[in-house]
Fold:
Amino acid sequence: MSGRDIVGYLVGLVLFIICIPALMWKLSGAGETTFEIGKVVILILFAAVGIALSIWSIIYMRVVGKGNPMDAFNNEIAPRTTELMTDGPYKICRNPMLLGVFIYYIGILIYLRSWQALVIFVIYFCIMMIQVKKEEQRLETDFGEEYLAYKKKTKKLIPYIW
Structure:
């Protein structure tokens, strides 16, 4: 694994798993909320499922796609995939790593019940949809008809829906 790979993984971990949830937490005033076991259990379940899906996607991308997920708005932070991935987590949807992060954040939103956290989530969602659009353009260029066929049969983000 190269230094660029490690940097890509660390940037993703710090930004998506730590910083954005910390911002949601901080802006929501969560330090002032009371402890509710039901909300904690929901948060843990959503976090476990979401992070597990994201990690599975990252490992699959590394092994099968022969690349790294850290590509921001067509700026290659770590080596891009060289193989199109259509099985494993990428059979669920075209963006399973992002779906996993969203599941994790939804758990945080349920826990926090805060409009401020929701605003952070909506902003993040909009930014990521712009990123997905740019990434899909790159994938169409890199993989052509093979990607277009995959795109027709696999939903963008939410299995069976969207």
Remarks:
- The CA atoms of residues 54 and 97 lie 4 Å apart.
- The chain has a mean pLDDT of 86.
- The beta strands are 71-72, 75-76.
- Residues 3-11+32-153 form one domain.
